[in-house]
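Two proteins, back to back. First:
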Amino acid sequence: MIDPANPNPQPPVPPTNHEGTVSITGEAKVGETLTATVNDDDGVPANVTYQWLANRCRHCRCDRQQLHQLTANEAGKTITVRATHTDNASHSEAPTSAATTPVVDPRQSEPAAATTAAEPRRHRHHFWRGESGRNADRDR
């Protein structure tokens, strides 16, 4: 039946989506546990799926939990998490967190100093001089 007061009714406007976010708390150190927290003004369901990423690449193992324990394989990498869910207003979302600082491994020693250009080049058992190109072993 057509309403004479409104002969061209419009379909109801769907509710506006309030995009959710996910954040990480915890210390980025091998052995520590990180926690993902989802915030969504439309409501967060209980069945959120988490995907932990090292240097923005998917982890080898399927770690789909809210908590993630850092391993030595992640040392030097930044960690993010993607939280896939359908909020309580029926919007499908998959926000990704900001990255952590690079994961540190307290068991590792300081990285070795890099060779500088001022140091002589070594090739097998020969010691090369700078620009002369003469072999130091022959000059003795």
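And the second protein:
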Amino acid sequence: MLPNALKKIFSDLDSKVGVVDTLVLTDAFGWSRTEYMQSQDLNEFVLVLFSSLEEILHERITNVVDSTLTTFIKTLSGETMKSREEKNRVISLCVKNFRTLYESFDDLLKDELLDGDNQYQNDNYQKVDARKGMEITSLAPTLLLNLVRYTFDYNTFNMVKVTDRLDYPEELNLSKYTKNKNDVYTLIAVTTHVGSVNSGHRYQYARPYSNTQDWYEFNDSKVTQVSAKVALEQVHTAILLEYVRTSEITEYLDKTKELVIGSKFQDTMFCFEK
């Protein structure tokens, strides 16, 4: 069971010195001993991970990671003709042709004009000019931002990796998109990928403690302390960014250990023997 495997790993990380075996986690995914050496889709992993945790922790997970985005079609005067809210645990942002994370957000939330041959047919079966787009309804305390670095090349008919530079800030202010002054976030983790579309190596930079500015590079069995500057320099290889709302960062980081290996989590799960 995946949540039990996570509990064992975090418990071992908390109590042991040295490298912690992760086979219990890959076994919980149902992977064979050869499959765990293959490159797996990061987004799929994240979604499966949180879905499994939701079975145990319920709203304690959904309240932390679920943002709400609304797709809409509006008249040119602003009247909503159609809308749909969707929960998003991972927000995907384009990298190609953009220089900063803010530019990627602008692209995600820009309107498309429906006019001419592309007019919208309303409920009265009339063709009208309209605007189609997406807006942020609410943001979760934790943001997982997928930087889309894989795209289809119509010239070669192959998937290619985008290595364009995309700058991301240590402090991310999204209040202009939400009109909520509290939607200011602090970077706590950067996952990178070095290699090609079909092969390569992932590693992560993370800031695990709220009371220090210490960052660490997690590269398989090797963990090295690094500066925040190093974590912010992965502008050509970053594929997943994790931000936490700045006003909640102390509570978030300090309570993660209690949630995963403490009594609240333990109440609903059996303990592994060490």
